From TrEMBL:
Record flagged with keyword Oxidoreductase: yes
Biased composition (Basic and acidic residues): 30-45
Pfam families (alphabetical): adh_short_C2 (PF13561)
UniProt cross-references to SUPFAM superfamilies, sorted A to Z: NAD(P)-binding Rossmann-fold domains (SSF51735)
Database matches in InterPro entries: NAD(P)-bd_dom_sf (IPR036291), Sc_DH/Rdtase_CS (IPR020904), SDR_fam (IPR002347)
Alphabetized Gene3D superfamilies for the sequence: NAD(P)-binding Rossmann-like Domain
Record key words, sorted: Oxidoreductase
Identification of the protein by name: SDR family oxidoreductase
Oxidoreductase in keyword set: yes
Top-level taxonomic group: Bacteria
Family: Belongs to the short-chain dehydrogenases/reductases (SDR) family.
Length: 299
């Protein structure tokens, strides 16, 4: 494990190839029960004031990539509102403690993104508790593998598109009146948006929709001084994978077969992309998709 995110090392061996033992949890899963545990940068992310005074709302902030982003943003000087499912309280409280250890504010607003009114309520509470909002990071996502299209239940289909796509529209609709020029919106697509795996058709299609939506929204909002960008992760070790995200039989080789680096990424390796796109060092970047996928080729 690197000393911090700036340490010089060979990227192919910077983190071990996880080769996880078979393990499975019901959705959405608890990271605290994973083996091995993902690295969120708990012991390594070093902040340098890049988001001083910012107020960020992060969905899916309890675990995985969203949790790594929350830790990084707090260490860069931001206060955070964390959104996640009520069942994930245990994971969320661990991240809250890390944010508070930085002397930053952590506001927990659990809820279900399939509920039509939750995105607006989430924004209102985040604004009230943080005294405003200038960064939205959408990291929540639903992924449930199914071998055949006929295996995808209508409930799964609707929930996948509601969590991944519809809630994003609702979140932005609610947040926009509060966002001053300089604010940033970052969404989370996937390399599945370009290279859909045959056993997650609903998920991959929703990720392509997120990428497309974000590029259109970026054009709509740039005149208001609001930048919209996308991060597209490749295979990343997180609880999503062991709670029906992928076929359990493929878990032992997770990330090592698809990624040219021969290993999965860690959430800690995704966080710097979200820091860059929120910070004003990316002031001339809008409508961009930053692929963080271990070298997989994208259009
Ligand atoms: P994760 O399980 O740690 O995070 C996903 C989060 O989504 C959960 O913690 C949960 O809080 C939230 N969520 C799911 N359903 C919800 C609902 N109904 N209401 C509210 N919140 C809900 O997994 P992760 O891998 O860190 O995923 C983060 C994002 O990265 C997702 O959008 C995922 O699609 C994307 N992504 C992950 C990978 C990967 O390999 N891990 C690859 C590409 C894209
Ligand atoms: Mg979680």
């Amino acid at each position: 494990m690197p000393r911090d995110q700036y340490e010089f090392s060979d990227p192919t061996t910077r983190y071990p190839n996880t080769s996880p033992e078979p393990q499975q949890q019901p959705e959405p899963g608890l990271e605290s029960r994973m083996d091995p545990k993902p690295d969120h940068g708990e012991d390594s992310y070093r902040g340098t004031g890049r988001l001083t005074g910012r107020r960020a709302l992060i969905t899916g902030a309890d675990s995985g990539i969203g949790a790594a982003v929350a830790i990084a943003y707090a260490r860069e000087g931001a206060d955070i509102a964390l959104a996640y499912l009520p069942d994930e309280e245990e994971d969320a409280q661990r991240i809250v403690a890390l944010i508070e250890a930085e002397g930053r504010k952590a506001v927990t607003i659990p809820g279900d993104l399939t509920a039509r009114n939750y995105p607006a309520a989430l924004v209102e509470r985040a604004v009230a508790e943080l005294g405003g909002l200038d960064a939205i990071v959408a990291c929540a996502g639903k992924q449930h593998w199914q071998a055949e299209i006929t295996d995808i239940s209508d409930d799964q289909l609707v929930d996948t598109f509601t969590v991944n796509v519809l809630s994003l529209f609702r979140l932005v609709q609610a947040a926009l009146p509060h966002l001053e020029p300089g604010s940033t919106i970052i969404t989370t697509a996937s390399m599945e948006a370009y290279q859909p795996a045959p056993d997650r058709l609903d998920y991959a299609a929703s990720k392509a929709a997120i990428n497309n939506f974000s590029k259109g929204l970026a054009q709509q909002l740039i005149g208001r001084g609001i930048r919209v960008n996308v991060v597209a992760p490749g295979p990343t070790w997180s609880v999503l994978q062991v709670s029906a995200g992928v076929d359990p039989e493929t878990l032992p080789g997770f990330g090592s077969s698809e990624s040219p680096m021969g290993r999965p990424g860690q959430p800690a390796e995704l966080a710097p992309a979200y820091v860059f796109l929120a910070s004003h060092e990316s002031s001339f970047v809008a409508g961009e998709t930053l692929n963080v996928n271990g070298g997989m080729v994208t259009p």
